[in-house]
Design brief:
Largest sheet: 8 strands, parallel, barrel
Radius of gyration: 20 Å
Shape: globular
Strand content: 5-15%
Number of helices: 14
Bound molecules: flavin mononucleotide
Oligomer: single chain
Strand order of the largest sheet: 1-2-3-4-5-6-7-8
Order of helices and strands: EHEHEHEHHEHEHEHEHHHHHH
Number of strands: 8
Length: 314
């Protein structure tokens, strides 16, 4: 069966700088989802979202923009914005688990409100010709919520529904619920993509064996932790390339220089790279020691030295 791999968006990580460097050094991803656009009541697109979606910043890869909202007018506004940029699909985030979002009936807090979902999809399909896809958890409180929502979703020509096989109140804790994901497979006529905890080729193969009807797979954190993972899945190999750390080092230096040129001052770049290292370090032989070294590096010179020491030890 063919395998299509999607990069699952991570706000604060998978922006255009990361995506372009990833594509240059690793490959293996067919389509990248951009992190969500959120308007917060004002019909205005923040500069950071604008920069991220600018076609000139995304020439080498296929990108699908994403929105997080529970408001039809906001949705329509963003559709118009992305269509003017040349995009033809908008992905709708019904997965975000954070209470600040869910308490306001957005992200995974919207899954239990099929009427509102119906209203928004109805307006979007009547008033625009945008292709809509969904990215959802299976519920906020329980994984049956999505089953109640499927009859509404089945009324619309959605391109696909990507499902992160957790519920919102779990945040990122506990495991994925594969029994509940199987119930999703059995209860919708839409094409489903699987998302959640694909962190190695072996794990990917387990998922593929378990869900033979799924041929689209989204990878989020696993791709940052080990950026070789998508190409290894595609090449059906458990082996990293021989020059693994050389390639990683070039990739690292590329994103470091790009973020350093954009962010001003030593603290923002430290925090940015530390965020990446929280994931990168998990692929090193001693994750804790690796991350500690990065955290301790309090100026750019010490940081470069720490990275160089870490890579030399691998
Ligand atoms: C820091 C962080 C930021 C995220 N930002 C987004 C986002 O902007 N849009 C979205 O749909 N999901 C977002 N997610 C969820 C991931 O895309 C993904 O669905 C989730 O991590 C499960 O997949 P994984 O186990 O492969 O990481 C985010 C997750 C994390 C940890």
């Amino acid at each position: 069966m063919s395998v299509t791999l999607l990069s699952s968006p991570l706000q604060g990580f998978t922006d255009f700088r990361f995506r372009n460097a990833f594509q240059k050094y690793f490959g293996g991803i067919d389509t990248f989802y951009a992190p969500y656009i959120r308007l917060d009541g004002k019909l205005k697109i923040k500069n950071s979202y604008q920069r991220d979606l600018l076609p000139a910043h995304n020439t080498e890869l296929e990108v699908i923009p994403q929105i997080m909202t529970n408001d039809a007018d906001e949705f329509l506004f963003v559709v118009k914005y992305i269509q003017e940029l040349g995009y033809s699909e908008l992905n709708w985030n019904l997965g975000c688990p954070y209470p600040m979002v869910t308490k306001r009936g957005m992200g995974s807090g919207l899954i239990c409100d099929p009427e509102k979902i119906d209203h928004i999809l109805n307006r979007v399909h009547n008033e625009t010709d945008i292709v809509v896809s969904m990215k959802m958890r299976m519920g906020y409180d329980n994984p049956e919520e999505i089953l109640e929502t499927f009859p509404i979703l089945d009324k619309y020509p959605l391109k696909n529904i990507a499902i992160h096989a957790r519920i919102g109140k779990q945040l990122y804790k506990g495991g994925v619920n594969l029994e509940a994901f199987q119930r999703c497979v059995e209860n919708t006529s839409h094409k489903l993509y699987y998302n959640g905890d694909i962190t190695s080729v072996a794990k990917f193969k387990d998922m593929q064996d378990r869900f033979p009807s799924i041929d689209h797979w989204m990878i989020g954190r696993g791709l940052i932790a080990d950026p070789f993972l998508p190409s290894m899945i595609k090449n059906n190999t458990l082996e990293h390339p021989k020059n693994r750390w050389e390639i990683f080092s070039e990739f690292h230096d590329t994103i470091y220089h790009e973020y350093d040129a954009f962010l001003s001052g030593p603290t923002p770049i430290k925090m940015k790279m530390q965020g990446f290292w929280e994931y990168f370090s998990t692929a090193f032989s001693n994750p804790q020691k690796t991350f500690k070294k990065i955290k301790k590096a309090n100026n750019p010179k010490a940081y470069q030295q720490a990275v160089s020491d870490i890579l030399k030890n691998e």
